[in-house]
């Protein structure tokens, strides 16, 4: 007896409710399916099904065996699919979520190298700063900044993004450069504030110097929750901004922004690649996850504060 063939026949009988329908689904004679189940019961020395002329019911032992058989057959099919993909390369659709700036400045420019390796993959990239429910929205993986509080997700640490404190030259001409972080909460200066789409709270500016950690809730005229709009507000001179180095460094190089409070180091913020533990099955999600880890590991400038 082929144990896997018998196991599949048993699962079909349970799911269809009759030997006749199971035989039709398997493309086998009804007598062959009946014989497989009898052999399986004899091998296991347990009654799996109760049969009458009208219906088939599953015994308690049969229901336990059904769930385990279903899991095992699924793993075998997944293994076969993975080996098949390894011969012809991964293919299929992949749903990814990422913020606007990371998508625009890091992820999308690097995607040609991903497609050069995996030309049969298709990525659906959701671009937003909001925190999506990966399971409810059927998302395979997401790139997220800050701590990951959802313990149901696998979180792989990409690094700790360094931040720069900047303002436009027009702002500095009008208000001067702040001499101390606490001045950002006073009447002279204003900050461009960012609020969490998850909690709705404004994020404070956090500074480090010589072992001291200082948290400041700046006086803001404008609060946003999307990084591209946040950058536009800083460029427009609406206040001092606190943004990842890779976002603002090109504008500092052209003089559109200037660094302020350079003797205080803004606190780095962790960046994670997160995904549900049962979601990345098959070669497609796995190769994208590993490619993303490689991409961020190849960019040490993201994690360094020095210019």
Structure report:
Belongs to the LysR transcriptional regulatory family. GO terms for molecular function: DNA-binding transcription factor activity; sequence-specific DNA binding. Residues 1-59 form the HTH lysR-type domain. Keywords: DNA-binding, Transcription, Transcription regulation. This is LysR family transcriptional regulator. The protein is α+β, with helices and mostly antiparallel strands and 307 residues long. The chain folds into three domains: 3-88, Arc Repressor Mutant, subunit A (Orthogonal Bundle), CATH 1.10.10; 92-161 and 270-302, D-Maltodextrin-Binding Protein, domain 2, CATH 3.40.190.10; 163-267, 3-Layer(aba) Sandwich (D-Maltodextrin-Binding Protein, domain 2), CATH 3.40.190. The protein contains nine helices and 15 strands. A five-stranded mixed β-sheet has the order 4-3-5-15-6, with helices on one face. The chain has a three-stranded antiparallel β-sheet with strand order 12-7-13. It has a three-stranded antiparallel β-sheet with strand order 10-9-14, with no helix packed on it. Helix 1 packs across helix 4 and helix 2 packs across helix 3. The longest helix is centred in the N-terminal third of the chain and has 29 residues, at 60-88. The radius of gyration is 29 Å and the shape is elongated. The mean pLDDT is 87.
């Amino acid at each position: 007896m082929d144990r896997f063939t018998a196991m599949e026949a048993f699962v079909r009988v349970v799911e269809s409710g009759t030997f006749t329908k199971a035989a039709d689904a398997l493309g086998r004679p009804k007598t062959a399916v009946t014989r497989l189940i009898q052999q399986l019961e004899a091998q296991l020395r347990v009654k799996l099904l109760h049969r009458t002329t009208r219906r088939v019911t599953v015994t308690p032992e049969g229901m336990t065996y059904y769930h385990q058989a279903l899991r095992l057959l699924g793993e075998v099919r997944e293994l076969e699919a993975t080996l098949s993909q390894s011969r012809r390369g991964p293919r299929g659709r992949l749903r990814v979520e990422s913020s606007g700036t990371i998508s625009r400045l890091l992820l999308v420019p690097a995607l040609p190298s991903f497609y050069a390796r995996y030309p049969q993959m298709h990525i659906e990239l959701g671009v937003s700063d909001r925190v999506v429910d990966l399971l409810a929205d059927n998302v395979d993986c997401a790139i997220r900044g800050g701590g990951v509080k959802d313990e149901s997700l696998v979180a792989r640490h990409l690094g700790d993004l360094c931040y720069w404190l900047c303002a436009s030259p027009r702002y500095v001409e009008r208000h001067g450069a702040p001499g101390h972080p606490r001045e950002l909460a006073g009447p002279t200066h204003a900050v461009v504030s960012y609020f969490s789409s998850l909690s709705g709270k404004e994020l404070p500016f956090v500074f480090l110097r010589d072992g001291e950690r200082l948290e400041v809730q700046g006086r803001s005229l404008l609060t946003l929750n999307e990084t591209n709009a946040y950058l536009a507000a800083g460029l427009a001179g609406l206040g001092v901004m606190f943004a990842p180095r890779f976002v603002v460094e090109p504008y500092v190089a052209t003089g559109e922004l200037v660094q302020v409070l350079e003797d205080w180091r803004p606190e780095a913020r962790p960046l994670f690649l997160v995904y549900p533990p049962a979601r990345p099955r098959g070669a497609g999600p796995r190769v994208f996850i590993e490619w993303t880890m490689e991409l961020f590991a190849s960019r040490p400038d993201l994690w360094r504060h020095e210019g």
